[in-house]
Amino acid sequence: MRRLYCGYLIALGPTAALSGIVVGKIFFHRSYDPSDAAHVICFLPACTLFAGGVMWIALAALPSFKAAWQVSNVRIRTPWWYSFVVGTVCGLGTGLVVGPLVEMSRGPLYAWFLTLIGPFPGVLWVLQRRRDPLQADYEDQMPKPTDHFDRAVELQSLSATESFGRHLGSLLFPNAVVALIGPLGAGKTQLSRAIAEGLGIANPAAVTSPTFTLIHEYPARLPIYHFDAYRLNGPNEFLDLGVSEYFEAGGVCLIEWADKVESALPAERLTIRIEVVDENRRKVELIPAGERYKSLTASVR
After folding, report:
1. Same-domain pairing of 99 and 199
2. pTM, full prediction
3. Each residue's pLDDT tens digit in the chain (301 positions)?
4. Considering the domain boundaries, does residue 252 fall inside one?
5. Residues 155 and 201 in one domain
6. Distance CA 239, CA 245 (A)
7. E strands, the chain, in order
8. Cβ 246 vs Cβ 152: under 8 Å
9. In CA terms, which of 39, 109, 159, 217 is 20 to 30 Å from 73?
10. What DSSP element (H or E) covers 16?
């Protein structure tokens, strides 16, 4: 967003001033001194900065808008210079319109208004950008955790699983991500409920699988964001939920069926693979990626 506005500001003022001078000379046969151009170059960016403030407020206040901007720039891997070029083109176009309007009207206030809406086409331009079919997808660029597990824990009963989950929950820290992998009926939701209990949730029974809603949020010692990726068609749909915002929200993210969206997860996380031994027993493999998760895994009993 900063690059878009930087390009817009750089292009807008000079273009508006020069186009206004040209129109004035051709149609009104006026002479100019440098102060005329300086007035336009200085005043237009002030309006544009105000418009930029509105856009940043929208990013902060509307999570869906912020998520869409992140998806467009991250998932599609927009080059660093792309937004700058878009802003420059929008600044040139707006300046070519505003300069003559200011010159012809001699009452430029309504022309300044155009500078306020000038960045919006650029924002829409970036948001509507589509990935090249030949371009590698976002998930192909994500770092993968090591595939070997650090620890394996045998859980002999339901109560052992609950005790394991509560202890794990008590060890989790802000922005922790726990990826749960296992077949249908392995007990991913049951383990999530126990982890939530360890995090101090007031009503553990409220923790249910968010298969249809995709995300459940629960208040606890740390906010709990409970995801279910079962119904998603891959990592891109997971990113479309704005999950990157949740990963940095200071809570704990519990993700069931994480193997379906693995490449969209943070590089550092704790992956838990659940294997069904029999009706009551489970084998749990802990796969930490990152030093904090390795320390946490060493503390799990």
Report:
1. no
2. 0.53
3. 667 777 777 777 777 777 766 776 676 666 655 665 666 666 666 666 666 666 667 666 666 666 566 656 544 555 667 777 887 887 788 777 777 776 665 555 556 666 767 777 777 777 666 544 434 444 444 444 444 556 788 889 889 999 999 999 999 999 999 999 999 888 999 999 999 999 999 998 889 887 777 889 999 999 999 998 888 888 888 888 888 889 988 999 999 999 989 888 998 999 999 999 988 889 999 999 989 999 998 888 7
4. yes
5. yes
6. 10
7. 151-155, 176-181, 215-218, 224-228, 252-256, 269-276, 282-289
8. no
9. 217
10. helix 2-28
Specify whether 154 is located in the same domain as 32. Answer: no
Q: What gap in Å lies between CA 105 and CA 280, rounded to an integer? A: 81
Task: Point out the domain boundary residue: 66, 101, 135.
Answer: 135
* Phi, psi of 146, rounded to the nearest 5 degrees: -60, 145
In a domain, 140, yes or no: no
Domain of 159?
A: 145-299
Q: What is d(CA 89, CA 82) in angstroms, rounded to the nearest whole number?
A: 11
SS3 of 106, please? coil
The CATH number given to whatever domain includes residue 291 is 3.40.50.300
Q: In this structure, is residue 222 part of a structural domain?
A: yes
User: Which residue, 104, 135, 166, sits at the end of a domain?
Assistant: 135
Give the separation between CA 66 and CA 64, rounded to whole angstroms.
5
Report the number of distinct structural domains present in the chain. 2
Residues 150 and 122 reside in one and the same domain: no
In a domain, 187, yes or no: yes
